[in-house]
Design brief:
Number of domains: 2
Distance between the termini: 94 Å
Strand order of the largest sheet: 5-6-10
Helix content: 40-55%
Structural class: mainly alpha
Strand content: 5-15%
């Protein structure tokens, strides 16, 4: 190779390495951002909503929504996880259990763990793993792909085992030859959905508060009652010739229709 071509190749290699390094740094920054957002969304929407949304992303990978729920709960709390083959699949019935080697995790780390395990198995050609393969991807073990002369057995360290040893998510992804980019994309989608749920919760709470306020009950003129027994009525307010009591009745020139009296009182 002549000097010009050699220098060009070296330059291109340096640029490519720099580009890859920059992309990995961006992914790591985005991962931290989305992980923090997921923790925030868990706090504001409630853990049940957040856990359900995470489970939704991994139900197909885990083989069933029950398995996905067990994974999310077990990793979140650091408690034993049981995975079983769901009925109606072509897999032989099986069930395995394991205890995460990590301490209880926040939902951000739960999502990352499952996403990296899913990517690693997919890179081996396993898209519908058995419970045993799921366990191997998470805590370590062997995974065999293919059959006959094409069979290949790979030993996995396990995403959770690597994490328990102090490895960062970027290094774990690098050791597996997978990218953090798709993990970030998945977390962004989950955060978007949880933010929408929170917005709906706030709107519903606001509407309920408005409804309660509107139904409070006040007296006007000569004993007109807007609602019976509401919060405003409990204040025994005086207007003209009527007194509204906590029971919503008007005493004086008008009485509540609820009591059957007519007078000058009306309920509306």
């Amino acid at each position: 190779m002549n000097p010009v071509k050699r220098n060009l190749a070296i330059t291109m290699g340096i640029v490519a390495a720099f580009t890859i390094g920059a992309a990995r740094a961006d992914d790591a920054t985005s991962l931290r951002t989305e992980s923090s957002r997921l923790e925030h969304n868990t706090a504001v929407t409630g853990e049940a909503q957040a856990n359900s949304r995470i489970s939704q992303d991994f139900a197909g990978f885990a083989g069933s929504s029950t398995n996905a729920d067990n994974l999310v709960t077990g990793l979140r709390r650091g408690t034993p996880v049981t995975l079983t083959t769901s009925s109606g699949t072509s897999q032989q019935p099986s069930s395995v259990s394991f205890t995460p080697p990590t301490r209880p995790m926040g939902n951000g780390n739960v999502y990352i763990s499952l996403a990296l395990a899913k990517q690693q198995l997919a890179s081996l050609g396993v898209t519908q793993p058995t419970p045993e393969q799921l366990k191997a991807a998470l805590v370590g073990g062997t995974v065999t792909t293919g059959s006959g002369t094409d069979a290949r057995t790979v030993t996995l360290t396990g995403v959770l085992t690597q994490r328990s040893q102090g490895m960062g998510w970027g290094n774990i992804a690098k050791s597996q030859g997978v990218s953090l980019g798709s993990v970030v994309s998945g977390m962004k989608s989950a955060n978007h959905d949880l933010a929408a749920i929170h917005s709906h919760q706030v709107s519903a709470a606001s509407a309920a508060a408005t409804s309660v306020s509107a139904g409070g009950g006040m007296a006007h003129g000569n004993g007109i009652v807007t609602a019976a027994g509401g919060s405003a009525a409990a204040g025994n307010r005086y207007h003209d010739s009527g007194i509204v009591t906590g029971a919503g009745a008007v005493h004086g020139d008008g009485q509540s229709v609820a009591t059957g009296a007519r007078g000058q009182g009306h309920v509306r």
